TrEMBL record:
It comes from the Bacteria. Keywords: Oxidoreductase. GO terms for molecular function: phenylacetyl-CoA 1,2-epoxidase activity. InterPro entries: Aromatic_CoA_ox/epox, Ferritin-like, Ferritin-like_SF, PaaA, PaaA_PaaC. Gene3D superfamilies: 1.20.1260.10. It comes from Billgrantia kenyensis. This is 1,2-phenylacetyl-CoA epoxidase subunit A.
C-alpha cells in the first residue's frame, strides 16, 4: 500500500516537476540516486587519468592547451556531481571511501589503457560522445540538482567531443602511419564505448525502477542505438573502417543492426579485472593522500577566519 506522501511524490514525477533536496522522497529513490550520481562523479574523476597520461606528450602547444583544459573540465564535472549527491545526505568522504574500497563502481571504459596520441582522439570523440548521448537524456532526470548539473556538463562535453573528432580528422587525413594510428584507436575504443551504456535492458537491474521514477529517461539499449547510428556516418567521413563487421542499415527499423558486445569482457572489467583497474585506484588513493595537507589547510584557514569574525 502506498502512503499519501508516496502518491504525492509520484504525482510530481508524472507531472514532470523536479524533486528538490528538501522534498519528501522514497528511501529507495534517494539511495538509487546516490548510487548513480556518485558513480557518475567517480567516472568523471577517474576518467582524467587516461588523458592525463598524455599531457606531456601532446604533439604541439596548441594540442596540449586544449587537452589540459578538457581534463580540467572533467574535474569540474566530478565536483558538480559530488555536490549534487551531497544534497541527498551523503558526505564526500563517504563517497570517496566507497570508490577507494571498490564498493562503488565507475565507468568501465576508464580501465582501458591510453596507448597512443590517437587514443586522445578516440576518447574525446567516442567516450565523450557516448557520455553526451547519455547525459542529454539525463538533463530531464527527475532530481533537480542532477538535471541542472547535466545541462552545464553537456555544453562542455560537446567541446570535448569536437576536440577528439578534430584529432581523428587530422590523423585520418595525415600520413599512412597516422591513419593507421587513428584506425587502431578506433578499433580499441569502439566496443568499450558501446559498453558505457550498460547491460541490455533485459539484464539491467536498476532500469525498470529508474525509468518509473524518471531518474533515467531512456533505456540503456535505446541510448546505445542512438550512439551506434550517429557514429556510423562519422566513421565513414573519417574514411576509416568500421570495427563492427556486422553493422548493417535496417530500413524497416530505421536504425543500424549491429554485432554483439563481448559481455564477458564487460563483466570482467566491472568486476575489477580490466587492464588498469588496480592502477586507476592506486593512483586515486595516492593523489588523495598527497592532497590531505591541502584539505587540512583549508579547514584550519576557515576555522581561523570564523574565529576572527566572532571577535
Ligand atoms: N561501467 O542496472 P544497470 C564520463 C553497472 S561519462 C561500470 O543498467 P544503471 C565523461 C551499474 O552501475 C561516464 N559499471 O545500472 C568523461 C550497476 O552496478 P551497481 C559516466 C556499469 O545505473 C569522458 C550494474 O552495472 N556516465 O565519465 C556500467 O541503471 C572522458 C547494473 O547496470 C554516467 O555514469 C559501465 N559501463 O545504468 C570523463 C552516466 N554499466 O551500481 C572523462 C550516468 C552498468 O548496482 C573523460 N549513469 N554498470 O553496483 C547512468 O546513466 C547509468 O548509471 C548507467 C547504468 C547507464 C551507466
Amino acid at each position: 500500500q502506498t502512503s499519501l506522501q508516496e502518491q504525492q511524490f509520484m504525482q510530481k514525477i508524472n507531472a514532470e516537476e523536479k524533486i528538490e533536496p528538501k522534498d519528501w522522497m522514497p528511501e529507495k529513490y534517494r539511495k538509487n540516486l546516490i548510487r548513480q550520481i556518485s558513480q557518475h562523479a567517480h567516472s568523471e574523476v577517474i576518467g582524467m587519468q587516461p588523458e592525463g597520461n598524455f599531457l606531456t606528450r601532446a604533439p604541439s602547444l596548441r594540442r596540449k592547451a586544449i587537452l589540459l583544459s578538457k581534463i580540467q573540465d572533467e574535474a569540474g564535472h566530478g565536483l558538480y556531481l559530488y555536490s549534487a549527491a551531497e544534497t541527498l545526505g551523503i558526505s564526500r568522504d563517504e563517497m570517496i571511501e566507497a570508490l577507494q574500497s571498490g564498493r562503488a563502481k565507475y565507468a568501465s571504459i576508464f580501465n582501458y589503457p591510453a596507448l597512443t596520441w590517437g587514443d586522445m582522439g578516440a576518447i574525446g570523440w567516442l567516450v565523450d560522445g557516448a557520455a553526451i548521448v547519455n547525459q542529454v537524456s539525463l538533463q530531464r532526470t527527475s532530481y533537480g540538482p542532477y538535471a541542472r548539473g547535466m545541462i552545464r556538463i553537456c555544453k562542455e562535453e560537446s567541446f570535448h567531443q569536437r576536440q577528439g573528432y578534430d584529432i581523428m580528422l587530422t590523423l585520418a587525413n595525415g600520413t599512412s602511419e597516422q591513419k593507421a594510428m587513428a584506425q587502431d584507436s578506433l578499433n580499441r575504443f569502439y566496443w568499450p564505448a558501446l559498453m558505457m551504456f550498460g547491460p541490455h535492458d533485459s539484464e539491467s537491474a536498476h532500469s525498470a525502477k529508474s525509468m518509473e521514477w524518471k531518474i533515467k529517461r531512456e533505456t540503456n539499449d535505446d541510448l546505445r542505438q542512438k550512439f551506434i547510428d550517429q557514429t556510423a556516418s562519422q566513421i565513414e567521413f573519417l574514411g576509416l573502417e568500421h570495427p563492427d563487421k556486422e553493422l548493417k542499415w535496417n530500413e524497416e527499423r530505421g536504425h543500424y543492426d549491429s554485432g554483439e558486445i563481448d559481455w564477458e569482457e564487460f563483466h570482467n572489467v566491472i568486476a575489477g579485472n580490466g587492464h588498469c583497474n588496480r592502477q586507476r585506484l592506486e593512483h586515486h588513493i595516492k593523489a588523495h593522500e598527497e592532497g590531505a595537507w591541502v584539505r587540512e589547510a583549508l579547514v584550519a584557514y576557515n576555522a581561523k577566519k570564523q574565529a576572527k569574525q566572532a571577535e
